[in-house]
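Folded chain entry
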Amino acid sequence: MSEDLQIASGSKTEKYESIIPQIRALMEGEPDLIANLANVTAALKEQFGWLWVGFYLVKKDQLVLGPFQGSIACTRIAKGKGVCGTCWEKEKPVIVANVEDFPGHIACSSSSKSEIVLPVIRNGKVLAVLDVDSELLNQFDKTDQHYLQEVIASIDFG
């Protein structure tokens, strides 16, 4: 296991292609899901400097806050509510260029301007969502979606 990250510069693609193998190395041999989710969020936040990066875990009929990096966050989100709840309900990624334009956006932080949320699906069931917020408008695109899905795919949810 490696605990030193090499932070890359360059294009968004170059940054992802540098950090993803490092994230995999962080998780290698570690069976604890919470430890791995914590390291994934830390690595992504360090590489990209986003406002907030974290996981919400599906527990019964709610998303419950899991490991994250950033300021304090909403603890529980109902299915279909906000960007995270919408992602969970639709079982597909949601990219929001301007959170002010998203009906029902849950403002955990007034600094958040754009957001991407991706579902973690195993055996046809959403187990969690990965939520990333930025202080910049229009921060996220299909490149982020592609590479963040690759990160999610490498996590063993048991």
Summary: Strands lie at 52-59, 62-69, 76-78, 94-96, 114-122, 125-134. The first strand starts at residue 52 and ends at 59. The chain has one domain: 12-153.
